[in-house]
Amino acid sequence: MANSPTVSVVLVIRDVEGFLGEAIESILSQTFTDFEFIIVDFGSKDSSKEIALRYAAADRRIKVSAVLPSSYIQAKIEACKIPTGRYIAIQDADDISLPDRLKLQVEFLDAHQEYGMVGGAVQWIDLHGQPIQSGADYPTDDSEIRVQLKTRNTFWHPTVLMRRETYERVGGYRAAFSQSDDYDLWLRIVEHYRCANLKAKVLHYRIHPQQLSLRKRKDQILCALAAQAAAGLRAAGKPDPLDATQEITGELLIRMGVSEAEQQKNLASGYSGYINHIFEAGGYAAVPEAVAEMLKVCQGPYLDPRLASDMHMLCAKSFWKQRKVISGLISATRAVRTRPRLLGRPLRLLVEGLHVLY
């Protein structure tokens, strides 16, 4: 198309009024300016759509549209049918793209035609936009990405810039993935293209308790396992059942070769990582509920007592951070009951509690 922009930035929104303005402005402030900004609302009941329309009235690069109330993945699939640019950039409503993000990524893909997509490093921020301790950086080299991608997602979704032809060639996002839709997409892209992450930080990635509901967290873990299993089937020359599937369940995973024990192990580690992120972001009030949900979902012989004990202790620390001393002591007691060896370290437990409290 003669007047097509170089980049199509895609943002899907619903009830995200709290952070939306910052996210939109971070794209409008890019040093690389040859882009269209596609914002698709999929059923907001707050002022999200009105906020997007106000920005669109002031900047013609913004194109706001709406789809009928639907799931996030269905809305994203529809949104990614709109781009006319050579590249598609993903933006999330609660994150902030740094000014040179698009410039750095377009330069990389322009110079490396064999690469189908590129991500970048992030700085974690809390609910209020303040920097917090970030997780380990993702691998940058294609060969290392391929190794690690077999067992974990190696890209921050809202940092990715991909070729539109790449997205279309592999079939885009798939409807079966209520969560981990990005991980499934990356696994299919690396079967045809090289990929990379820039070492430079290109995004402020917000960690906050409202980021992902507990129910969706379980779905995310199971969907990630499905993405890995499907990649293994394709590598073995077998059919991928997820092309014709609308929902990923534990039973489906077992049929794909993922045992109940493996599912439970991944649920436990996935929940614990999520809960630690909540704590690091200062969401202390949300930690006890999350721990209770984890222990409800992750039951039986597959839950490591040490991990369960650690979660009870994190719950205790969260209560102490809120000056709820008695509730903290109850959680600490549960930690000891779960792992009696902690009885040999009562002074350490007391010091930990006092340190957090004061």
In brief:
The chain is an alpha/beta fold. It is built from 14 helices and eight strands. The mean pLDDT is 90.
Spell out the blueprint of helices and strands:
Elements lengths: L6 E7 L3 H12 L6 E7 L6 H11 L3 E5 L5 H8 L7 E4 L5 E2 L3 H11 L3 E11 L16 H8 L11 E3 H7 L10 H9 L4 E13 L7 H22 L14 H6 L4 H21 L6 H11 L7 H17 L3 H14 L7 H12 L1
Parallel strand pairs: 1-2, 1-4, 2-3, 6-8
Antiparallel strand pairs: 4-7, 5-8, 6-7
Helix pairs in contact: 1-2, 7-8, 8-10, 10-11, 10-12, 11-12, 12-13, 12-14
What is the level 1 CATH name of the largest domain? Alpha Beta
What profile does the largest beta sheet have? 8 strands, mixed
CATH superfamily of the largest domain: Spore Coat Polysaccharide Biosynthesis Protein SpsA, Chain A
CATH topology of the largest domain: Spore Coat Polysaccharide Biosynthesis Protein SpsA, Chain A
How many structural domains?
2
* Poorly predicted regions: none
Whole-number mean pLDDT = 90
Gap between N and C termini: 62 Å
Q: What percentage of amino acids are in beta strands?
A: 5-15%
Biggest sheet strand order reads 3-2-1-4-7-6-8-5
Radius of gyration: 22 Å
CATH architecture of the largest domain: Alpha-Beta Complex
Q: What is the helical fraction, as a range of percent?
A: 40-55%
**What is the overall shape?**
globular
